């Protein structure tokens, strides 16, 4: 008993302690970080230094046109210009960048634009004033003279290439040498380095190094008489390879005469060395020679500013996450010390941002990525992001090159205190994968030291630092600096570059903590006491300073208002002829002071050219690149060395917030340069430019006039209007003008209207201007960009990331944050996208409600039996993936359908062609699949067919033909089909049969032996040795089990417990498909069965579930307050239905957004009162992708109606009369109360005939005529917003008795629409016209008549745009496999490896155990629908506001339990003490 009592007492004691401990845990602040604390001891041993490598640090590339607009900042706002430059290069209060690499321009687009060549002819003196690069480098050196400089070529001038092509390098050598000389002569500094190779010619060990050129340059430069004084100091850099140090290393190993000539080996976007590099360095060490310095000479800059990241990725605290500031700063550490490369470390000592300042227009290729963005030189506005402060953590605490002490010119690496691990990403370490990332450097003279930590994970890291062998600095005060995200309630930049601690070591030992997603620097340097304003002070961006470039804008290229500089040079001369606010994309546009022509071909010598009206034209803009001097392309990523571009000269200028405007200029075509075939001679204007892409300009709309009088209007590269100007004289000046007025585009010549085009899709509704020409010396003068009377030109642009997530609409409506006005409610997912998307951000929401309620035939709805109804029959060699099928010349497809209309959709891109379309064996048209970017769009349609079976046949005839889906209109009743995709990453892994649950639309993945299925966004996998199987619980009428390429094993399928067979991979990416099941819960089980194993892993690529839609609404909405008269939403939406509310009123119901390309308009509205509004956009069906929006801040007078007494906006027609009607005008029917206000996008030239109708048949429906009844016959069938007003007989009918009805010709019945009654009229907004009238119900009809009136569903169908099964909304964006070159978009985005923006979430094969990468994993990120599906995991009530979230309930219960246990524990202790007493 004594023993038992002691045990009981012990139990009570343990219970007491446990209770108190548990209670204390329960009572902890529930907001306390749960991040794991990782500890480590770091020894900073001053003797443990790298004797071969010295730290160089961060630098920058100025190339690809990225610095161009800095020239304008310097002229327009010099204070802001020098602020920018000091932010980049000041070593105390700025980033302190140590190196500037300038592109040696070749007049070719080297990615983001054109850098002008310093020489265009062999006999032309080098001109280093052209472009911005050398001026940028000179001004940087004026801030810090120790900055080193370098040149590197991408392309090259034609005269240089022509010699190289025949093995003669002298012209190329002279180009280099004379440029080196000119830099010194013009700017007074000598280049420190010459990049001797072509940028990224060497790639992934391809051995493309121009050995003969290297030998020619290195030997020839030594023969110069002034070699020792002017060139000997120059160090040579090679080979600037893309993830390639092996090619140049092998060259040096194999060529002893070169091994001592190359000083630096440079590579891009890589953490790995190579066996050849290791062999080379070891050889040099063994011979007692200096090893080669290794640089990452081009690396990615931060993408997506911290203020956007904080909103959309709050878990990363604004500065963390992929391509965030922490990630980018960590790369200077990882390129030196990444432990993942064990055999062949890179040991790179520098990292050059490409670029550091984005001084080129947003939307250009690879923009944005930057430390500072500066593309508004007219206002002087620029934005510096956290990247500047991140770089300061490194560069403000180390020494710089000191050329007076070469042996100690830089700080030294402390090897044992420098470390980096984690999974390799795109040139860096993947987020949330590393355990430690730090670098320690010490001053070789003073033994001061600095350690930089980066933590791009959710774990807190704690370090014990042990300093030793530092000559007295072991116990020196250590100053700690930190950059991290904001705390609750703080400005987003509140915690950037803050001193957080002063530490006094004890015997060299002290502690350091590094918070999640932060950068921390500890240093013995007390910079704060030495430098005024050293600590960063919060300065959130003030976007009110980002003012629009006001219109009218004019440029006569005289620039008399600008003063001369200190050397007496005027505006034109000191800028090398660079015109104001322009960024050349192809060719070279420069200001000239007089007209000249070439004396002889191939020479720079010129003579005066007599031109008409010479006295009226002083300075002029001239396109300088004739067809015989087109630069040699940068063809390393495809194409042919030395090729001349197929794109034509164009330059971009202005503000991408411009909406409606007219561009005009005087032009004189070049008639002295002989025209050659394939190089047209013309003048061009483009409007609404927002992104890169296009052969003639980067604007979506272009108009041009050729030397033979031919004219064209183009949309997205396709000619939409063309003709010929009679008696066109190409030897005189003309005035060209192109007007963008809402969605109407009009071409003018010499003040007269030539032609007009109405874009029914309203593809792009705001953007900049482009100027262009052929490869001729076209002269341009008197540029004007004018507002259009009565139309707004101003807008504000908002990014999709200028918003926040809210749980309820009420919270979103109460959002008062004007910088972030958008509220997202429901299931929205954020994507860090590529440069083609505004600020690289995207928001996506999906809904099960179908966008199409007719018959949809998808590309995977295949048949082997020709003539099968609603199936596609392929003939020829078709390829396919989950997004589309494609065939080549001669391949065909057939669809047999029953209906009265069919619409054909396909993937359009620059690689595709055209196809002939046959209906019932008769040629009826052509489908065009060619587009300047990759999007799914309608390529053919035919309507007004007999309601019977038809066969549509499509035959490819030029390049590729694509098929995504066909939509069939039919009078037969069709069920609404919803399509749900379950992504391969959306699985529940189980290890026991009993764990298979009954959750709807859920995939259970079983695997034995303690292993779980691996998965990513593309596929899931499990080793067949673990007896894996898949169970899919789904509710619906059908399912597709998808398959990837490379899988040969047959799988056993069981549906609802019954074996249905063994199925292998199909040709249509579907392994198993079933339809027409009963709409109920089903179970599909997939296993190996008795089949032979053909590969190691079972593969799962997702399923597509088909069901009868019962969804009526969606809670996925975006809500925003704005002040203005309208807005545009834009983004690459695949297919969606939207409900749009303005100020609580539904203004557009089930508005269908057909497939849109990057930055293309998905929805637009105008005509609102110029005041404050609240908009709500509900994603009702399909998938909606949102990049951003334009808020129209001006007034369109034509929409307001202007002065109602002003007859110019009115047209009057008599009954039976036909007359032309105009956009925005009101048409009155004479002597009646009937009138129609026309939509602003009504096609030009539309006519209307109004005829009175006798509606005798209405009585059969129990209706009687109560007012006007008319048939409205328009010459153009245009769906738009018409405001119809009809009069009624007030004497006979009350206001509540009358309504407007529409006559449905198909059903031959009058359908109720409604309307607002006032003063004897009734008004209703309609979207198309036929016959309308005012009726009242007769008293003899009973209320059963309501069945006839219902018609609401029929009304929805009137616009003909509703519907779509949503299939391609879920995977239509996948694109086509790269093997056929079909997609184009992915291939063009060269940064999918270089800068990595498209590889950001490429986690394929992350389960290293299985290594199941799979070639299809490359496009894993494209299926945005998968991400949306994942977003809802475990939160099925998200945003509905039906009750407390589960976390709140469990926390409350835990608190109660904790209090109870605390009381029990206290009582138990008191009881024990009392017993003892």
UniProtKB/TrEMBL annotation:
Domain Gram-positive cocci surface proteins LPxTG intervals: 1444-1477
Transmembrane segments: 1452-1471
PANTHER family reported for this sequence: GALACTOCEREBROSIDASE
Stated family: Belongs to the glycosyl hydrolase 59 family.
Region annotated Disordered, chain positions: 1196-1216, 1340-1445
Pfam families: Collagen, Glyco_hydro_59
PROSITE patterns assigned: GRAM_POS_ANCHORING (PS50847)
Protein name listed in UniProt: galactosylceramidase
Biased composition (Acidic residues): 1197-1216, 1340-1428
Keyword rRNA-binding: no
Membrane-protein topology: Peptidoglycan-anchor
Keyword terms, alphabetized: Cell wall, Lipid degradation, Lipid metabolism, Membrane, Peptidoglycan-anchor, Secreted, Signal, Sphingolipid metabolism, Transmembrane, Transmembrane helix
Keyword Lipid metabolism found: yes
Localization: Secreted, Cell wall
Top EC class, one word: hydrolase
InterPro entries named among the record's database cross-references: Aldolase_TIM, Collagen, ConA-like_dom_sf, GH, GH59_cat, Glyco_hydro_59, LPXTG_anchor
EC number(s) from the headed UniProt entry: 3.2.1.46
């Amino acid at each position: 008993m004594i023993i038992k009592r002691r045990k009981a007492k012990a139990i009570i004691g343990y219970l007491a302690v446990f209770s108190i401990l548990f209670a204390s845990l329960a009572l902890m602040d529930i907001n306390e970080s749960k991040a794991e604390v990782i500890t480590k001891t770091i020894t900073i041993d001053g003797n443990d230094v790298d004797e071969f490598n010295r730290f160089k640090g961060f630098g920058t590339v100025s190339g690809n046109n990225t610095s161009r607009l800095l020239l304008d900042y310097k002229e327009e706002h010099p204070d802001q210009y020098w602020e920018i430059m000091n932010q980049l290069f000041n070593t105390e209060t700025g980033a302190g960048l140590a190196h500037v690499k300038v592109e040696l321009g070749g007049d070719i687009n080297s990615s983001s634009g054109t850098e002008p060549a310093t020489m265009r002819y062999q006999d032309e003196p080098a001109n280093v004033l052209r472009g911005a690069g050398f001026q940028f480098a000179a001004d940087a050196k004026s801030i810090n003279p120790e900055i080193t400089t370098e040149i590197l070529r991408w392309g090259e001038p034609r005269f240089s290439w022509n010699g190289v092509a025949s093995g003669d390098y002298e012209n190329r050598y002279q180009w280099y040498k004379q440029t080196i000389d000119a830099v010194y002569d013009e700017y007074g500094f000598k280049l420190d380095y010459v990049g001797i190779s072509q940028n990224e010619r060497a790639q992934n060990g391809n051995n493309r190094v121009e050995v003969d050129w290297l030998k020619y340059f290195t030997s020839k430069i030594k023969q110069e008489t002034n070699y020792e004084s002017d060139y000997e100091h120059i160090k040579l850099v090679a080979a600037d390879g893309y993830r390639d140090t092996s090619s140049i290393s092998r060259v040096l190993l194999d060529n002893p005469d070169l091994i001592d000539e190359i000083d630096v080996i440079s590579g891009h976007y890589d953490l790995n060395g190579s066996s050849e590099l290791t062999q080379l360095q070891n050889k040099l060490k063994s011979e007692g020679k200096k090893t080669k310095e290794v640089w990452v000479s081009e690396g990615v800059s931060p993408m997506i500013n911290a203020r956007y990241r904080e909103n959309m990725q709050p878990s990363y605290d604004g500065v963390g996450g992929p391509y965030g500031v922490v990630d980018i700063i960590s790369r200077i550490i990882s390129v030196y010390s990444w432990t993942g490369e064990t055999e062949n470390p890179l040991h790179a000592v520098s990292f050059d941002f490409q670029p550091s300042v984005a001084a080129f227009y947003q939307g250009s290729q690879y923009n944005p990525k930057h430390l500072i963005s500066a593309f508004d030189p007219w206002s002087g506005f620029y934005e510096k992001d956290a990247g500047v402060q991140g770089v300061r953590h490194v560069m403000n605490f180390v020494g710089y090159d000191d050329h007076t002490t070469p042996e100690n010119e830089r700080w030294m690496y402390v090897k044992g205190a420098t470390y980096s691990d984690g999974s390799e990403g795109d040139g860096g370490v993947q987020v949330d994968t590393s355990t430690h990332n730090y670098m320690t450097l010490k001053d070789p003279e003073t033994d001061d030291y600095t350690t930089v930590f980066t933590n791009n994970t959710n774990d807190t890291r704690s370090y014990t630092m042990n300093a030793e062998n530092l000559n007295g600095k072991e116990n020196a005060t250590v100053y700690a600096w930190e950059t991290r995200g904001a705390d609750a309630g703080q400005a987003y930049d509140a915690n950037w570059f803050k001193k957080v601690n002063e530490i006094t070591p004890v015997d060299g030992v002290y502690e350091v903590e590094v918070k999640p997603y932060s950068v921390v620097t500890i240093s013995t340097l007390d910079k704060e006491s030495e430098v005024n304003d050293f600590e960063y002070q919060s300065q959130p961006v003030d976007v009110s300073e980002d003012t629009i470039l006001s219109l009218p804008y004019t440029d006569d290229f005289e620039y008399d208002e600008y003063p001369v500089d200190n050397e007496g040079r005027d505006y034109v001369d000191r800028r090398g002829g660079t015109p104001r606010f322009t960024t050349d994309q192809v060719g070279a546009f420069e200001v000239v002071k007089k007209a000249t022509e070439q004396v002889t071909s191939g020479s720079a010598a010129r003579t005066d050219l007599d031109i008409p009206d010479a006295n009226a034209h002083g300075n002029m803009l001239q396109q300088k690149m004739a067809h015989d001097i087109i630069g040699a392309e940068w063809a390393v990523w495809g194409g042919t060395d030395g090729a001349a571009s197929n794109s034509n000269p164009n330059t971009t200028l202005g503000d991408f917030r411009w909406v409606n405007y007219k561009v005009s200029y005087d032009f004189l075509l070049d008639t002295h340069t002989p025209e050659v075939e394939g190089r047209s001679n013309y003048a061009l204007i483009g409007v609404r430019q927002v992104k890169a892409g296009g052969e003639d300009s980067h604007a979506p709309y272009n108009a041009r006039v050729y030397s033979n009088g031919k004219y064209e209007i183009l949309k997205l590269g396709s000619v939409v209007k063309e003709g010929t100007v009679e008696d066109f004289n190409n030897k005189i000046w003309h005035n060209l003008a192109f007007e963008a007025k809402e969605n109407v585009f009009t071409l003018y010549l010499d003040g007269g209207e030539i032609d007009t085009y109405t874009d029914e899709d309203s593809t792009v509704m705001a953007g900049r201007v482009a100027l262009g020409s052929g490869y001729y010396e076209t002269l341009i003068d008197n540029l004007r960009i004018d507002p259009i009377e009565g139309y707004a030109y101003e807008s504000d642009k908002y990014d999709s990331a200028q918003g926040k997530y809210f749980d309820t609409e009420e919270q979103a409506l109460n959002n008062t944050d004007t910088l972030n006005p958008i509220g997202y409610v429901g299931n929205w997912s954020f994507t860090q996208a590529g440069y083609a998307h505004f600020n690289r951000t995207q928001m996506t929401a999906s809904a099960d409600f179908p966008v199409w309620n007719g018959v949809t035939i998808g590309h995977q709805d295949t048949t082997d039996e020709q003539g099968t109804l609603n199936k596609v029959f392929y003939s020829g060699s078709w390829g396919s993936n989950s997004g589309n099928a494609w065939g080549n010349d001669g391949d065909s497809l057939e669809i047999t359908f029953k209906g009265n209309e069919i619409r054909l959709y396909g993937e359009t891109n620059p690689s595709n062609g055209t196809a002939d379309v046959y209906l019932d064996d008769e040629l009826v048209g052509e489908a065009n699949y060619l587009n300047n970017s990759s999007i799914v769009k309608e390529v053919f349609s035919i309507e007004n067919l007999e309601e019977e079976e038809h066969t549509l046949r499509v035959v490819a005839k030029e390049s590729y033909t694509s098929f995504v889906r066909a939509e069939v209109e039919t009078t037969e009743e069709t069920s609404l089909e919803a399509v749900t995709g379950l992504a391969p990453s959306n699985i529940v892994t189980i290890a026991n049969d009993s764990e298979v649950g009954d959750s709807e639309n859920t995939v259970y993945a079983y695997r034995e032996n303690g292993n779980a299925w691996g998965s990513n966004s593309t596929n899931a996998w499990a080793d067949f040795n673990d007896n894996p199987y898949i169970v899919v619980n789904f509710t619906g009428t059908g399912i597709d089990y998808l398959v990837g390429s490379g899988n040969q094993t047959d799988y056993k399928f069981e549906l609802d417990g019954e074996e249905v067979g063994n199925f292998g991979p199909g040709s249509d990416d579907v392994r198993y498909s079933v339809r027409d099941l009963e709409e109920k819960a089903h179970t599909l089980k997939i296993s190996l069965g008795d089949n032979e194993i053909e590969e190691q892993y079972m593969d799962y690529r997702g399923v597509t579930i088909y069901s009868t839609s019962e969804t009526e609404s969606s809670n996925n909405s975006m809500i925003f307050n704005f002040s203005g008269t309208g807005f545009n939403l834009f983004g690459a939406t695949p297919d969606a239905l939207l409900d749009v509310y303005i100020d609580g009123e539904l203004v557009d119901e089930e508005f269908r957004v057909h497939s849109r390309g990057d930055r293309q308009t998905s929805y637009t509205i105008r005509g609102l009162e110029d005041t404050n509004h609240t908009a709500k956009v509900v994603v009702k069906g399909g998938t909606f992708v949102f990049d951003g929006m334009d808020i129209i801040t001006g007034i369109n007078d034509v929409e307001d109606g202007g002065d109602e007494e002003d007859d110019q906006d009115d047209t009057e027609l008599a009954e039976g009369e036909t007359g032309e009607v105009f956009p925005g005008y009101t048409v009155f029917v004479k002597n009646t109360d009937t009138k129609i206000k026309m939509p602003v996008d009504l096609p030009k030239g539309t006519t209307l005939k109004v005829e009175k109708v006798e509606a005798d048949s209405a009585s059969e429906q129990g209706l009687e005529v109560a007012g006007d009844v008319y048939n409205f016959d328009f010459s153009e069938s245009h769906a738009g917003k018409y405001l119809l007003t009809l009069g009624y007989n007030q004497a006979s009918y009350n206001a509540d008795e009358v309504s407007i009805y529409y006559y449905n010709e198909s059903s031959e019945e009058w359908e109720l629409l409604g309307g607002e009654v006032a003063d004897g009229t009734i008004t209703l907004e309609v979207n198309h016209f036929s016959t309308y009238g005012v009726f009242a119900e007769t008293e003899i009809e009973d209320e059963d008549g309501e069945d006839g009136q219902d018609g609401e569903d029929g009304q929805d169908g009137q616009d003909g745009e509703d519907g779509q099964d949503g299939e391609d909304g879920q995977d239509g964006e996948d694109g086509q496999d790269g093997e056929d070159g079909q997609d184009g978009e992915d291939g063009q985005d060269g940064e999918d490896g270089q800068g990595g923006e498209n590889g950001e979430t490429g986690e394929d094969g992350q389960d290293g155990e299985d290594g199941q990468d799979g070639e299809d994993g490359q496009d894993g990120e494209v299926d945005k629908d998968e991400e949306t599906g994942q977003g809802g995991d475990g939160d099925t009530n998200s945003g509905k506001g039906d009750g407390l979230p589960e976390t709140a309930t469990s926390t409350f219960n835990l608190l109660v339990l904790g209090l109870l246990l605390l009381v029990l524990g206290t009582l138990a202790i008191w009881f024990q003490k009392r017993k003892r007493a």
